[in-house]
Amino acid sequence: MLDRREIEAVRRVLESGRLRAGRITEDFENRFAAAVGARYAIAVSSGTAALYLACRAVLQPGDEAIVPDFTFVATAAMVAAVGARPAFADVDPETFTLGPEQAERRITSKTRALIPVHLYGQPTDIPGLARLARRRGLRIIWDAAQAHGAQFHGRDVGSFADAVCYSFYPSKNMTTGEGGMITTSDARLAREIRLLRSHGEASRYRHIRLGHNFRTTDIASAIGRVQLAKLPAALGARRRNAARLMRGLEGLPGLQLPQIAPGRNHAFSLFTVCIDRKRTGISRDKLLQALGERGIGAAVHYPLPLHRQPVFRGYGSDQDFPISARLAKSVLSLPVHPGLNADDLLYIVQSVREILKAG
Ligand SMILES: Cc1ncc(COP(=O)(O)O)c(C=O)c1O
Question: Which of 24, 225, 327, 336 is most exposed, with the fewest beta carbons within 10 Å of its own?
Fold first, then answer.
């Protein structure tokens, strides 16, 4: 949530006249790196840019990278954008994230990297995937666009090797309007990503890579610093809201609540349930519509698995990804953001219960 603090921070940047990425961005990067426990943080213009730059730094054209079939399109699109091939893998039926078994099945002689997604804010099986990567000589780019503040056994997801990509889009746990961040503790990777972020420029007007302009601004970073300071409170509110929804909705036949795997501290960017139509007697889409009629902004993340996206035609069929195909038809995200109060949450719980009962 934004308040006077962000407005004041932006006002100061505007009054200074120094809008481009400078001192404030550097400070935002340092604070972000410290917050997650990584050595480096590199601020960029979006989460998609973060993924693109990490892919450019790790993959060569013709390589393959393993991506969960059930995620936002950018995870796979950025692999393709650097000339590599995303190899889709099905996801775990409990956590909806890519697990080591699913990933291992998709490894070929061309595989160079895994790109697991901490979907909805739930960490994947980080140690399992890291072991697999070590054993098979692969790099890992973690998509943490939805997972600011998520932890595995008390360790922040942003501290794991090789690189971690964040989004600061307004719907995320913290925002800069548009923006993103890459964290890593690998000095070479950090240098490469910094080069690619800004025209491959090693020194003034000397370009040693074909780079881009994926820089952020001090305006965005000023917002980011305030948002980062607010993140622990925002996460606390999200987790409390999620616990209230869990308590209120537990025991409803045919409604699968978020399953938090052992050792994981979920960031609850989204609170996503799964509707078994046969048992509830009502489809996901009908429930979505009925909640909308009561003024509840539920949403579907995501209605199509990647292999069914028109841009990825030919990457497989529903038989290859049965869990992902089922989730796309049955998931529904209920509001969980920090702006909700106890009455709002009660209203959501009662509405879901009433709609399912009427079936
Ligand atoms: C899982 C995932 N990956 C990548 C992105 C891309 O981030 P951005 O919208 O900042 O480009 C998002 C954000 O929507 C996301 O949810």
Answer: 225
142 lines ligand 1 (CB under 6 A): no
Torsion of CA 166, 84, 310, 256, to 10 degrees: -50
Q: What percent of the chain has pLDDT over 70?
A: 100
Location of each CATH 3.90.1150.10 domain in the chain: 231-358
Domain limits, CATH 3.40.640.10, in the chain: 4-227
pLDDT for 60-69, tens place per residue? 999 999 999 9
- 3-class DSSP state of 47: helix
Fold of 231-358: Aspartate Aminotransferase, domain 1 (3.90.1150)
Task: Round to whole Å and give the CA distance between 349 and 245.
Answer: 6
pLDDT, tens digit, for every residue of 231-268? Answer: 999 999 999 999 999 999 999 999 999 999 999 999 99
Distance CA 56, CA 169 (A): 22
Q: Do the beta carbons of residue 224 and residue 28 sit within 8 Å?
A: yes
pTM listed for this prediction: 0.98
pLDDT number for residue 1: 87
Instruction: Please report the atom of ligand 1 found closest to the CA of residue 146.
Output: 16
Question: Ligand 1, from 46, 48, 73, 173: best to mutate by most atoms within 8 Å of Cβ?
Answer: 48
Is the pLDDT at 358 greater than 90? The verdict is: no
For residue 3, the cross-strand partners are: none
| Distance, C-alpha 103 to centroid of its chain | 18
What is the CATH code for 4-227? 3.40.640.10
